[in-house]
Specification:
Number of domains: 2
Shape: globular
CATH architecture of the largest domain: Alpha-Beta Barrel
Radius of gyration: 21 Å
CATH class of the largest domain: Alpha Beta
Number of helices: 15
CATH topology of the largest domain: TIM Barrel
Number of strands: 18
Largest sheet: 8 strands, mixed
CATH superfamily of the largest domain: Metal-dependent hydrolases
Amino acid sequence: MVTTLLLRSGKLLDVDTGEYAEGDLLCADGRIVETGRGLRAPDGARTVELAGATVLPGLIDGHVHVTAATADLGALTTWSPSYATAHSARIMGGMLDRGFTTVRDASGADFGLADAQAEGLVRGPRLAFCGKALSQTGGHGDSRPRGTRVHDGHQCCAGLGRIADGVDAVRAAARDELRKGAHHIKVMAGGGVASPTDRIDSTQYSMDELHAIVQEAEAANRYVAAHAYTARSVSRSLRVGIRSIEHGNLIDESNVDEFLEHDAFLVPTLVTYWALKTEGREFGLPEDSWRKVDEVLGAGLAALETAHRGGVKIAYGTDLLGGMHRHQNEEFRIRSEVQPPLDVIRSATSTAADLLGMSGEIGTLREGAVADLVVLDGDPLEDIAVLAEPKHITHVVQGGQLV
């Protein structure tokens, strides 16, 4: 296997400064070891001539569900684990082809998928996983219809959530996910679209329960991500020390200072609402859930603009389900309606790396970083469609290997 790779004559983007440097980039043993003009290829190195093509750090999606092969999340719990895994492998391979070399799974993926990817058994992005999301009874992670009482919470079930009620129970659930190696803990702190029995404007979990979950994560040097749409549910989450807010479509100006005060991240996922509205039912979204989409579809872009204007740290996320995963790059185009291209690129590189606790390791082309790279046939600073349309990706490098 080739361990040394030289990319010659590219335009290397420094995402911190927003400036290009023309030159070569040398990867060895999975790391970027040198950049500059006229680099010499070591013996046995593979050389790729880029002829002025643009080189970005490998992309990072901060909110995916690699096991969500259908938009009918309730049906997932009935799937065989092996069948769900086969779907996940296909989904992950597609993400890598779209330039995403690292993803943060926001519930569903487990240590098995992460280990399989790390060992080369599954082709896909590096996987930061949380296991099952914690949900109260009747919360966003409770996929049971109203007439169903039984809930099978076994770890091998393919669903995205686990139900835990009360301080002692949520502590035990958080500890169990951490025991299995969770990179972060996910909690459902408000209502959602794809859940059958809750309201989008509801808050979920008591403050005592949320605080207990945060305490357990912090004790393990991990953090909590919260599903939350409304200003009220976001505020409750930030006040107990939750580090990352997923979605946040219905935030307002009152939340901006709270994000800054608590040094928290916002991870909008605007593309999923566009996709759910246009083709969600085709890929299994139940009718009742489809009707909820309008409550968050229009507000998301305004919320993103509010957060961006206020200086909130914003990471890239997509949250796509079923056959809609193919729209993963469309989030770049949607965000560019209210953000400059460089800021959108940072959300999927350096800011996302910061969220994952991997600043300097990924999301950068600096020497010493992991050699994750995307090569494009155009300039995304001039036209964000170069990133929004995967046809413009000519090469993807992951860990120094041309994949």
